[in-house]
Amino acid sequence: MTTVLVAYAGKNGGTREIAEVVSEELRALGHAVDTRDAADVADVAAYPAVVVGSALYYSRWRRSAVRLLEHNVAALRERQVWLFHSGPCGPGAALVHVSLPASVALLAASIDAERTTTFGGRLDPALVRGVLPRLMARGSRAGDFRDWERIRTWARDVGHRVSSHVSL
Ligand SMILES: Cc1cc2nc3c(=O)[nH]c(=O)nc-3n(C[C@H](O)[C@H](O)[C@H](O)COP(=O)(O)O)c2cc1C
Asked: Which SUPFAM superfamilies match (predicted)?
């Protein structure tokens, strides 16, 4: 049994819920999983496999997720690492692939992480704070664009790869 770390960083709970669903699928495949806010992860020593997910805000990753990668580059290079980000909202959001922000792309390359996956996000005007963000959250971009079946399929794929790596 492998313990997988699923670390998430967001503002309004949407990314945490994705991390929880990813964790659920990994557990269903027999892995032990620690699901943690990236801000609470000091090091990754205990985990042979790591998933890090961030919400996208203004085309950037959340600081705590970037910090987790920055502070653990050497250890992560020795581990299986998957990255995802969640953000696109509005019609067609589920099909949008967003490239990693440049600084995160550099870290991903140093770590030799798997290709990053983009999941749609959730924009709920009731949860968003600030005048400008609230304006953004209105109209056709408002709503929940997280495709749970895609998220679950991706998580199962991660789980299978963790299993096959461990049994090598
Ligand atoms: C102020 C603001 C800026 C955002 N910027 C981006 C962005 O640059 N790219 C993107 O794909 N989504 C963007 N989003 C959408 C969020 O990433 C999406 O709502 C996500 O699900 C939020 O996750 P959270 O609930 O974990 O904070 C933005 C949302 C807000 C409110």
From this structure: Flavoproteins
Task: List the domain range (segments joined by +) for residue 31.
Answer: 3-166
Q: Domain of 89: which CATH number?
A: 3.40.50.360
Total number of domains in the chain = 1
Pocket test for ligand 1, best of 56, 61, 145 (most atoms within 8 A of CB): 56
Please tell me the distance between residue 2's alpha carbon and the centre of ligand 1 in angstroms.
32
Query: Residue 55: CB partners within 8 Å, gap ≥ 6?
Result: 9, 10, 11, 12, 14, 15, 61, 62, 85, 86, 87, 121
Residue 89 CA, ligand 1 centroid: distance in Å:
8
In angstroms, the CA 92 to CA 88 distance is: 9
Question: Which stretches within 35-147 are classed as H helix?
Answer: 63-71, 73-77, 102-111, 131-136
Which residue has the least CA distance to atom 22 on ligand 1?
A: 55
Mean pLDDT of the chain: 94
Q: Which H or E run includes 22?
A: helix 14-28
Span 48-71, pLDDT tens digits: 999 999 999 999 999 999 999 999
